[in-house]
Specification:
201 residues; UDP-galactose 4-epimerase, domain 1; 3-stranded mixed sheet
Length: 201
């Protein structure tokens, strides 16, 4: 919930730094409310052992590839696959491509849950789950283009919004907990793209 290396004056509590992202403010408030409710229940009833896992952005199999409902990675997979199949020479990227995002495969999140389920007593009240590093939007486009086999060019539509310049979670507690993600970005994208192609056949 807070940037990597940021100070955390409220030990074992989530904090917010700056304003919530306007495009998903309601969603963020709902998540914070549920997480705090779990904390209060645990404090008032020692028989309850609720813990909150806070993952970074996810992608992977069973994702939504419909442009009207998809998030960035599945949207770009479909966009570049369509461009390859239609021999589209140039693809437009919103913004300047420099905004950075942290995406982890949903398969890795599932692996973490299986790892943690028998160690809930050791989990802190809140646990960020992520990679601890990020890539630029342009990096994702380049990597996905290699996975899908698109060899066209990119241009930047700077009239479109860029969004937050960076979204990166602090994984220091996760590292102390002893878990690390398994899939590289390339491996995760290949898994997601293969699933997408099965849905197109």
């Amino acid at each position: 919930m807070y940037p990597r290396n940021a100070q955390n004056p409220l030990k074992e509590q989530m904090i917010l730094q700056g304003e919530l992202e306007p495009t998903n403010e309601g969603y963020a408030i709902a998540k914070i409310g549920v997480a705090k409710l779990c904390e209060y229940i645990c404090k008032s009833n020692s028989a309850r052992n609720y813990k909150t896992i806070i993952p970074c952005n996810l992608y992977g199999k069973y994702d939504k590839y419909d442009p009207a409902h998809s998030h960035m990675i599945p949207a770009v997979i479909k966009k570049l696959d369509d461009a390859k199949n239609s021999n589209q020479a140039v693809i437009s990227i919103w913004g300047d491509g420099t905004a950075r995002r942290e995406f982890m495969s949903a398969s890795d999140l599932a692996d973490f849950i299986f790892y943690a389920v028998d160690k809930t007593e050791l989990l802190p009240q809140y646990m960020n789950v992520g990679l601890g590093y990020d890539y630029s939007i342009l990096d994702y486009y380049k990597e996905i283009s290699e996975v899908v086999g698109y060899d066209g060019e990119f241009n930047f539509d700077t009239s479109k919004p860029v969004g937050m310049k960076q979204k990166l979670v602090d994984i220091s507690k996760l590292e102390s907990f002893g878990w690390r993600h398994n899939l590289s970005l390339r491996e995760g994208l290949i898994e997601a793209y293969q699933f997408y192609k099965l849905g197109q056949s």
